[in-house]
Q: What sequence folds into this?
């Protein structure tokens, strides 16, 4: 009787252990399968965007693509929000930041009258074609605010700017919008503001500073939000004094923006507000894209 | 008779236990093989050598600041057809470079930027323009030079693997190969 009980106990124990092990192995195989499925095409495309432009002007937005592997003779066709088609053939695709392929998509807002417009979840379609198959992806280019104006006056010449600001850190919070402006007129121009309308809970202009430097690469090095408060007062642009650009001279203006770590991508083409002979004018700045790329794209 | 039946049941149970034991050993073996393949990363709390410092690339800014002079590629006169189209491909080769305060490993900077340092690479662009009867169109090209500012930050990693970002920053600059761009100008003959 005792022997029978002991045998049953062993049977139950061994069955239980076998079940637990079988379950864990199955779970392991399932997790492994999921991680293999992770080897899919990855895109970085969803952004918040503010664009100040004249009607029918075209803006370039970047899509970053990480394929699981790059086949020869691959061709990428991107259908833009306007129905335009952009094509990249294999040899034209170039690795960019962190190994991602960058693809430029023109975004043009046709038939917009003057005013401010908001577009939520602007979609783009990407077709990745190889000799054997075509894969279609629907990508969101994010939420866009477009402001168009007929009062655009391009009296200042943009000489330099930062096209991309890329961070590889999850929690970095400072983005710098840097631009060089040349005054070709015979009068002094005062730049009084760089403005944009975006989500104030995620983006906040900390300061706008005006520098007289020889190159955009020589501007003061400020990398942390806390350091913005250390900018000398005389360098700060206020709506009363502005950044003074004498005739045929150049100044650099830096807008320091605090971004929430939830913002993965930002496209900014701010409205430059300036004064000339006591008249106020507006013009678009250069386009800058901020991208947070936290994962590497391996071959 | 009863004894024979009990003996048969006992033998059957032993077989089941044996099979289960075999399954158990097999599954343990499979798990060991899987565990061998799994890369175990150090956890916070694991003792690792240190403390040591590490420079990492935190930001990269791209500027296009240097341009070459506009150079003429071709002038095409349109006097025999209602419209003419002219097209040329320009190829331009230049080396990539890195200078400034380089603290992070060059290989890591190359990975973050997406191109190799110290190599010569060629870029080409096809320029085209249409002109109309009685016009001449001239194609021009110039190069533009992308410059990257690489912001590196020093991190201290202690014996427990905890990372502390410091206020030490270093700035390196990288030049990517120059890319050609075109423009066209039309005039009446």
A:
């Amino acid at each position: 009787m005792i022997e029978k009980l002991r045998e049953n106990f062993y049977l139950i124990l061994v069955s239980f252990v076998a079940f637990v092990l079988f379950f864990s192995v199955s779970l392991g195989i399932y997790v492994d399968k999921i991680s293999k499925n992770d080897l899919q095409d990855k895109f970085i495309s969803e952004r918040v965007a503010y664009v100040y432009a004249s009607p029918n002007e075209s803006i370039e937005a970047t899509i970053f693509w990480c394929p699981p592997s790059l086949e020869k003779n691959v061709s990428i066709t991107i259908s833009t929000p306007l129905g335009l088609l952009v094509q990249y053939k294999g040899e034209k695709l170039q690795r960019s930041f962190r190994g991602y392929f960058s693809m430029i998509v023109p975004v043009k807002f046709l038939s917009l009258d003057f005013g401010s417009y908001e577009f939520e979840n602007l979609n783009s379609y990407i077709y990745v074609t190889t000799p054997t198959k075509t894969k279609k992806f629907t990508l969101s280019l994010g939420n866009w605010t477009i402001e168009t104006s007929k009062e655009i006056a391009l009296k200042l010449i943009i000489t330099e700017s930062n096209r991309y600001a890329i961070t590889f850190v999850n929690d970095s919070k400072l983005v710098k919008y840097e631009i060089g402006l040349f005054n070709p007129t015979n009068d002094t121009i005062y730049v009084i503001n760089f403005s944009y309308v975006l989500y104030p809970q995620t983006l906040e202009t900390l300061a706008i500073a005006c520098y007289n430097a020889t190159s955009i690469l020589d501007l003061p090095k400020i990398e942390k939000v806390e350091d913005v408060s250390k900018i000398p007062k005389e360098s700060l642009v206020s709506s009363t004094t502005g950044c003074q650009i004498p005739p045929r001279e150049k100044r650099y203006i830096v807008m320091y923006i605090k971004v929430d770590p939830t913002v993965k991508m930002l496209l900014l083409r701010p409205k430059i507000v300036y004064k000339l002979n006591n008249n106020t004018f507006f013009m678009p700045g250069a386009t800058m894209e901020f991208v947070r790329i936290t994962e590497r794209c391996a071959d | 008779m009863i004894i024979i039946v009990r003996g048969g049941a006992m033998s059957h149970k032993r077989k089941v236990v044996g099979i289960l034991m075999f399954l158990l050993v097999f599954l343990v073996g499979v798990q060991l093989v899987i565990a061998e393949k799994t890369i175990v990363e150090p956890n916070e709390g694991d003792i690792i050598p240190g403390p040591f410092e590490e420079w990492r690339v935190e930001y990269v800014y791209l500027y296009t600041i240097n341009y070459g002079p506009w150079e003429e590629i071709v002038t095409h006169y349109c006097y025999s057809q209602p419209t003419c189209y002219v097209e040329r491909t320009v190829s331009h080769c230049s080396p990539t470079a890195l200078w400034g305060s380089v603290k992070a490993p060059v290989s890591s900077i190359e990975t973050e930027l997406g191109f190799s340092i110290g190599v010569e690479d060629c870029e080409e662009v096809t320029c085209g323009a249409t002109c109309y009867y009685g016009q001449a169109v001239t194609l021009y090209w110039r190069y533009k030079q992308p410059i990257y500012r690489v912001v590196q930050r020093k991190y201290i990693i202690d014996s427990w693997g905890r990372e502390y970002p410091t206020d030490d920053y270093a700035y390196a600059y990288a030049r990517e190969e120059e890319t050609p761009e075109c423009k066209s100008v039309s005039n009446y003959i």
Remarks:
- Chain A touches chain B at residues 7, 10-11, 14-15, 17-18, 21-22, 24-25, 28, 94-100, 160-169, 172, 176, 178, 215-217, 221, 223-224, 296 (CB under 8 Å).
- The helical segments of chain A are 2-37.
- Chain A has one helix and 20 strands.
